[in-house]
Write a structure and sequence with these properties.
With 339 residues, this protein is α/β, with parallel strands linked by helices. It folds into 2 domains: 2-63 and 197-338, Alkaline Phosphatase, subunit A (3-Layer(aba) Sandwich), CATH 3.40.720.10; 66-192, no CATH class. It contains 12 helices and 17 strands. The chain has helices at 16-19, 23-30, 47-54, 65-72, 106-112, 168-181, 211-219, 230-236, 247-253, 257-270, 319-322, 335-338, and strands at residues 2-8, 32-38, 81-92, 95-98, 119-123, 128-134, 146-149, 152-155, 184-192, 204-207, 223-225, 240-245, 280-285, 289-291, 296-298, 302-307, 328-331. The strands form 4 sheets. It has an 8-stranded mixed beta sheet with strand order 11-10-12-1-13-16-2-17. Strands 3, 4, 5, 6 and 9 form a 5-stranded antiparallel beta sheet that branches. Strands 7-8 form a two-stranded antiparallel sheet. Strand 7 and strand 8 (152-155) form a beta hairpin. It is globular. It starts with a strand and ends with a helix.
Length: 339
């Protein structure tokens, strides 16, 4: 039986799911099996590493956020290059004021890219971008909300102070960039310079619109589709489906609990037609918890349901109810085995 995996970004981590009116998710939970899952045990993970593990890959093979997001915009890093994910940010007297600032104009980006022939910035979406630098040196995270941990980054409570990368060429570039942007800078994280050879998921189709998920799909050999009519795409696709929906995470980062609740309820209405699907195994979970009180990812487990593969009569799709489910509490690397 073909499978559908739906990742609701930042779904748990607060009371939003408990308070939301979610008849669709509750139906799927009641007539399916439920449990709790640690995306990465004892870590507040970034989305890329968590989803890499959810798809069944060992984190020792994770190439870093930079190379994956570069793949997501069709840039494959070359030998001698390192890719990093960047945020544009605003600061004053070495203190960061906004770590999600608007991307500068194309004219300004063009000017910035003339600073050093060995460094290039490629804007992506909203406040995000990719930085490519000719170096083999590992570069430190300067994003205050993500600390480097082995091959990936873990979320932490941000100390809003500007720091240096440890790469003299890049630090010099950033200093000159700040003179052009005046009160703006860039924050880097997830450096990497290799694309690993991994077993491909050729019988999977990915529905996504963010560089990190698109990059993961390309890395793992999935067929990439831009999200249009999600339910119709799911019904029409003859492959397994992997779908990521960002909504709840966005509001949690803004510390907007009400917005997160509304986002979850909107997703619930969107997914209603899934209750009629009988010939697919449906799995709904999250890549991490995001607290709308703290505004950051947390290390808490996320709820998971599997529909059309037996039931355990869980009443609702919440952390409290899923804790009682027959799937138990497990690590994300084991999810694919349960489908």
């Amino acid at each position: 039986m073909k499978k559908i995996i739906i990742i609701l970004d930042g779904l748990s981590g607060d009371s939003a799911l408990e308070k939301a009116n979610t008849p669709t998710l509750d139906f799927l939970a009641k007539y399916g099996k439920t449990g709790l899952m640690y995306p990465i045990k004892s870590i507040a993970p970034e989305s890329g590493a968590a989803q890499f593990s959810i798809l069944g890959y060992k984190l020792k093979n994770y190439p870093g956020r930079g190379p994956i997001e570069a793949l997501g915009i069709n840039y494959k890093i070359k030998k001698g290059e390192t890719a990093l994910r960047i945020n544009f940010a605003t600061f004053k007297k070495n203190k960061l004021i906004n770590i999600r600032a608007k991307i500068p104009s194309k004219k300004i980006i063009k000017k910035i890219n003339k600073i050093n022939k060995d460094i290039k910035i490629i804007p992506t979406i909203n406040y995000r971008g990719i930085l490519i630098i000719k170096t083999d040196q590992k570069i430190k995270n300067t994003h205050p909300g993500y600390k480097q941990h082995k091959t990936f980054s873990k979320a932490i409570t941000p100390k809003l102070i500007k720091t240096k990368t440890g790469n003299q060429k890049l630090d010099s570039f950033i200093k000159k960039l700040e003179k052009i942007l005046k009160n703006k800078t860039i924050l880097v994280r997830g450096s990497g310079n290799k694309i690993p050879k991994l077993k491909k998921l050729k019988d999977w189709c990915l529905l996504a619109d963010m560089p990190i998920e698109i990059g993961l799909g390309k890395l793992l050999g999935m067929k990439i589709q831009k999200k249009k009519n999600i339910i119709q795409q799911i019904i029409n696709c003859k492959k397994n489906i992997y779908l990521q929906i960002k909504g709840p995470d966005k509001y949690a980062h803004k510390k907007d609990l009400k917005g997160k609740i509304k986002s979850i309820e909107k997703i619930d209405r969107l997914l209603k037609p899934l209750t009629k699907i009988k010939n697919r195994i449906i799995c709904i979970t999250a890549d991490h918890s995001t607290s709308s009180k703290l505004g950051i990812h947390t290390e808490h487990p996320v709820p998971v349901l599997i529909y059309n593969k037996g039931s355990d009569n869980t009443n609702r799709f919440t952390i409290k109810e899923c804790k009682k489910g027959s799937l138990g509490t497990f690590n994300s690397i084991d999810l694919m085995k349960k489908l």
